[in-house]
Amino acid sequence: MISLNYRDTSPIYEQIKNGLKKLIVSKALKENDKLPSVRSLAMDLAINPNTIQKAYNELENEGYIYTVPGKGSFASGNFQVDKRRLEELKRHVREMIAELRFMGMSHEELLQLLEEGEGDVK
Questions:
Q1: For the residues 102-109, what does the mean pLDDT come to?
Q2: CB 31 within 8 A of CB 77
Q3: If you average pLDDT over residues 37-54, what whole number do you get?
Q4: I want to staple 29 with a disulfide (CB 3.0 to 4.6 A). Which of 3, 15, 72, 75 is the partner?
Q5: How far, in Å, CA of 76 to CA of 74, rounded?
Q6: Which of 8, 11, 107, 78 is nearest to 50 (CA)?
Q7: By the 8 A CB rule, do 56 and 38 touch?
């Protein structure tokens, strides 16, 4: 499900958050699929449950998952867009486009890249 890279400079909770987010966005985790419990995932990954809880909290704050008390956490299908996160992602895309253009990528190549990305999500 999720693998950790201990040589990566990003914090473990971010790796978990990004791994789960990728599974949700790619629809490997479908709407209303139950996520592993905090304790279960912590045991599987041999890390502190507080690290998992932090990742889950951030995913819930961003709308990627929701929690039902006493039942667990689930993948959200029609999550509410976090306006701050949306603006942050747009900024990142603009920065990447500027760098790719600087490196010589044409407008057509950028459009093709965008179309390839849309295929990943479907």
A1: 94
A2: yes
A3: 96
A4: 75
A5: 6
A6: 11
A7: yes
Burial class, 97, CB count within 10 angstroms (exposed 0-12 / middle 13-18 / buried 19+): middle
Residue located via tokens 């045991």: 43
The C-alpha atoms of residue 29 and residue 26 are separated, in whole angstroms, by 8
Q: Which residues pair with 66 in a beta bridge?
A: 74
Amino acid at 110: L
The residues, ordered by sequence, that sit 6+ positions from 95 with a Cβ below 8 Å of its Cβ are none
The first and second tokens of residue 53, run together, are 């809880």
Residues in the chain: 122
Give me 6's structure tokens.
């201990």
Quick one: pLDDT at residue 83?
A: 72
CA angle 96, 19, 42 (to 5 degrees): 150
For residues 25-64, one letter each, b for 16 or more C-beta atoms within 10 angstroms of the residue's C-beta and e for the rest, the string is eeeebeeeeebbebeebbeebeeeeebbbbbbebbeebeb
